[in-house]
Specification:
Blueprint: E1 20-22, E2 33-39, E3 42-48, H1 57-71, H2 79-85, E4 89-93, H3 98-112, H4 122-127, H5 140-147, E5 158-163, E6 166-171, H6 184-198, E7 204-208, E8 211-215, E9 224-229, E10 240-246, E11 249-255, E12 260-263, E13 266-269, E14 284-291, H7 294-307, H8 309-318, E15 325-331, E16 337-341
Antiparallel strand pairs: 1-9, 2-3, 3-7, 4-6, 5-6, 7-8, 8-11, 9-10, 11-14, 12-13, 14-15, 15-16
Helix pairs in contact: 1-6, 3-7, 6-7, 7-8
């Protein structure tokens, strides 16, 4: 497991309240093979629509175990745990290379988003109680005392050197800690995607806790149909907000509408603004991001929950080289759910 606020395992930013799932039905024309299980405090589902499938659940679970041993803050001897609890300079071996990959992509998103995405937010996450269920908001003074240890800028609170499989992390203060919960689950989807592609499969669906990637075609020989839930608190029965038609794409959703605590009538969402140290306070309920890989979709879904509606749309427009599309659900003053999307998102809603 990774953390508690995002899904139990990925502690910070995702709370996949908008659940994405495959809406497919089998036919006699295509055979399929499905593997389901639990990982990272959530569930996973893999559907392979190819002949002669030889993948086993044991193989998949073994990959997840290696992933946890690198990036889970709930595994005491994981790579990230050893680095987080080290004092001064720590040297750790990472056979899988998952930490390096996650760190480098996180640095890219941190830089692109001007700090809206910040994996060093761990002290704030813990301070706000998203790992201990604290029910009272922090004061400005308490936030200031924590935010002093939050910055993913290289050279400020930390330096890192990667030498083959060795990671050397020099911390300027012991309170500096890294939390990849806003991106690691997406990366785990990509890792499984790469494993299946290496085996030669062309048509499959990989979903972990709502983050997913689809390749080729479904059992009907069509592009994959992905349902997006209506964002409502305490929703018992699943209700679709929309359906996406996708292939060769990844999807991730972040949302605020089911993970929050309320004090004096005010909701404190699980999404923290790394710059202010406080939970975001705006009308954005969820951000669904389509990208070429799940880790990128996961990371930018968090970014957009921090930025809000208009700034998110502006970001996508100004950074067209990233190939992102976003679908935003938000409320007006009366509480009515409204939606806005990036300019090219509509092509995924029509088939």
């Amino acid at each position: 497991m990774f953390g508690q606020a995002k899904r139990k395992i990925l502690a910070l930013s995702v709370i996949i309240s908008t659940i994405l799932s495959s809406c497919i039905e089998a036919t006699e024309d295509f055979s399929s093979y499905e593997i389901k299980g639990e990982t990272q405090g959530t569930t996973y589902s893999i559907i392979i629509v190819d002949e002669n499938v030889s993948v086993t659940k044991q193989e998949i679970d073994s990959i997840f175990s290696k992933f946890d041993n690198s990036l889970s803050t709930y595994v005491p001897n994981s790579v990230i745990s050893k680095l987080n609890f080290g004092i001064g300079t720590s040297r750790v071996e990472d056979e899988s290379g998952f930490f390096k990959r996650c760190y480098q992509l996180s640095q890219t998103i941190y830089s692109k988003s001007k700090g809206a995405f910040d994996p060093s937010v761990f002290p704030l996450v813990k301070g706000w109680g998203f790992m201990t269920n604290m029910e009272s908001p922090l004061s400005q003074h308490e936030v200031d005392s924590l935010i002093a240890f939050v910055s993913f800028e290289p050279g400020l609170l930390h330096d890192v050197v990667f030498d083959k499989k060795t990671i050397e992390l020099a911390k300027k203060h012991p309170n500096f800690k890294i939390d990849f919960n806003a991106i690691a689950q997406g990366l785990s989807v990509d890792v499984i995607d790469e494993f299946l592609a290496k085996k030669g499969y062309k048509n499959y669906y990989v979903e972990i806790g709502g983050e997913l990637i689809v390749r080729g075609h479904n059992r009907e020989g069509s592009v994959w149909r992905i349902g997006v839930d209506v964002p409502k608190e305490n929703l018992t029965n699943r209700e679709l907000e929309n359906v996406l038609f996708l292939t060769e794409k990844a999807v991730a959703t972040s949302g605020n509408y089911r993970k929050f605590y309320e004090v004096d009538g005010k909701k404190y969402a699980h999404t923290l603004n790394p710059k202010t140290g406080f939970p975001v306070q705006h009308s954005l309920l969820s951000a669904t991001v389509i990208a070429d890989d799940a880790a990128t979709a996961d990371g930018y879904a968090t970014v957009f929950m921090v930025l809000g509606v208009e700034k998110s749309l502006q970001f996508v427009q100004e950074n067209s080289d990233l190939g992102l599309e976003v679908y935003l659900l938000y409320t007006d003053e009366s509480g009515k759910i409204l939606r806005k999307m990036s300019s090219n998102f509509s092509k995924y809603l029509n088939h």
